[in-house]
Amino acid sequence: MISRFHFPGHLPESGEVALPEGLAHHALRVLRLRDGEPMVLFDGRGGEVDARLVVRGKAGFAQLGERRTLDRESPLQVVLVQALASGDKMDWVVQKAVELGVMAIQPVQAERSVLRLSGERAEKRLAHWQQVAVSACEQSGRNRIPQVHPLQPLVPWLAAVRGERGYVLAPGGGTGFGGEARPEGAVHVLIGPEGGWTEAELAACDAAGFRRVTLGPRVFRTETAGLAALAVLQAQWGDF
Predict the structure, then answer these.
(1) What average pLDDT does this structure show over 117-132?
(2) How far is CA 222 from CA 18, 26, 193, in A?
(3) Where in the numbering of this chain does the Ribosomal RNA small subunit methyltransferase E methyltransferase domain appear (predicted)?
């Protein structure tokens, strides 16, 4: 397969561009691409450019070729609202959600979240998750990068989106997605933390107009539930 790279900046229509240090390091030192090898660059704004790697000493450049307008985005505008999960579970969720076509990811702090983030630590983790999203786009062929929004407490976030269309996964607390009308515009899917939602949080979701749904009689782990829900929505209304 031809390697795909996100180019963090505007790509000109033709000519040669210098590869940013991080991109060049990944291409030359990690993937060990050689001078003249084909590659694909995309800037995250839609479309991609065929290119060839040019190596001069330790620096990397790209000779730009044809630009293609390719839209691999899902017709659904799903925002995955994921309660913070511990360890590397959030990395997994971000990566796989991007592969499944999510429009954006909103991390939220829930009462039973094992992981607690604030201040500089939260900012660093957000930047890391955004880079995970970039890498997932490189792998999956997406040319638009979903945004990972800054972390917010659940209840204030619910107040800000009150009245918008959304679902909250609550094992044993509702019906499935079957029979729901295809959404017009953005739809939010809320996933609880390892310890599950509290009754107060579920009540806040109810008050915001979000409908409780279930994915059947089994209880999913937090890192599985959102991905399963995205797959269901893509099969029901999207491009699966």
Answers:
(1) 92
(2) 42, 32, 6
(3) 73-234
Same-fold call for 3-68 versus 77-237? no
Cα–Cα distance for residue pair 208/227, rounded to 1 Å: 23
- 77-237, superfamily in CATH? SPOUT methyltransferase, trefoil knot domain (3.40.1280.10)
Both structure tokens of 51:
């290119």
Are 17 and 64 contacting, i.e. CB atoms less than 8 angstroms apart?
Answer: yes
Cβ-based neighbours of 115, under 8 Å, separated by 6 or more: 84, 85, 86, 90
CATH superfamily of 3-68: Hypothetical PUA domain-like; domain 1 (2.40.240.20)
pLDDT, one tens digit per residue, over 174-233 is 788 888 888 889 999 999 999 999 999 999 999 999 999 999 888 899 999 999 999 999
Q: What is the average pLDDT score of the chain? A: 93
Query: Domains of the chain: which residue ranges?
Result: 3-68, 77-237
207: three-class secondary structure by DSSP: helix
Which positions ≥6 away from 48 have C-beta within 8 Å?
4, 40, 41, 42, 67, 68, 70, 143
What is the 8-class DSSP label of residue 192? -
